[in-house]
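Long-time lurker. I teach an intro course on protein structure, and each term I like to show students one example going from raw sequence to a predicted 3D structure in token notation. This year I'd like something fresh instead of my usual example. Would anyone be willing to generate the tokens for the chain below so I can use it in lecture? Attribution to the forum is fine with me.
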Amino acid sequence: MKEKEELPKLEPNYKLWLEHDGEYVFGPGAYAILKSIDETGTITEGAKKLGMSYRYAWGVIRKIEKKLDVKLLHSYKGGNVGGGGADVTDFGKSLMHLFSKVDDEFSSAVEEHRS
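-- Reply from a regular --
Happy to contribute to a lecture. Here you go:
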């Protein structure tokens, strides 16, 4: 292997996630699930919009809730004819905001180094 005088063009990149007590808790997939539920008003429609099953999306949410010991969603049943839904809790919205803010800051830093 020969020594090079110039570095090849290298581009910065990153993968962002939030941890609690050194364990993964929240990342881009969980963010997308909460955002989609917030936009559609239901877990079923939110999951469908992302091309995933209700069971998978609800499992991701429950896992985060268990790790943080906090509710991310308030879900409700719609009665005899259906029509239930889900609302993202204030804590869930704060978690989404934190993730989005940090992601935006990382993205800006990466873009600065690409210019």
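Some talking points for your students: The mean pLDDT is 92. The radius of gyration is 19 Å.
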